[in-house]
Design goal:
flat; 3 helices; alpha+beta
Length: 107
């Protein structure tokens, strides 16, 4: 994808200071209220678990399932009671609009 035919696997290295997008997403509700470093604090007890999560159906595995697993692992409970799915905007071919498909508007 770089256009550099001479580029080899040896030329590549992983960023050492990077957090996976989906990892950080499921961490957010716990870390926001310092639930990792200070479990059982007043804020985490007040705000966690929440009632609802609103998301697109295309990220059930990437976000919703991982939030549930993290919730049970770190807080011993499900992080929300309900999941509401929004619709997905599609192109004229019925494909989900996304940057990776190149079928979305240029911001």
């Amino acid at each position: 994808k770089t256009g550099n035919a001479a580029l080899t696997i040896e030329d590549l290295r992983q960023d050492e200071d990077c957090l996976d997008t989906w990892f950080s997403s499921w961490l957010w509700p716990i870390s926001l209220f310092d639930g990792i470093n200070n479990p059982g604090n007043e804020e985490i007890n007040y705000y966690y678990p929440t009632s609802d999560l609103v998301t697109g159906p295309d990220i059930i595995f990437f976000w919703v399932a991982r939030m549930i697993m993290a919730g049970y692992e770190y807080e011993g409970q499900m992080p929300f009671k309900n999941v509401y799915f929004t619709g997905i905007v599609r192109d004229k071919l019925g494909r989900k609009m996304s940057k990776s498909l190149g079928n979305s508007p240029d911001p």
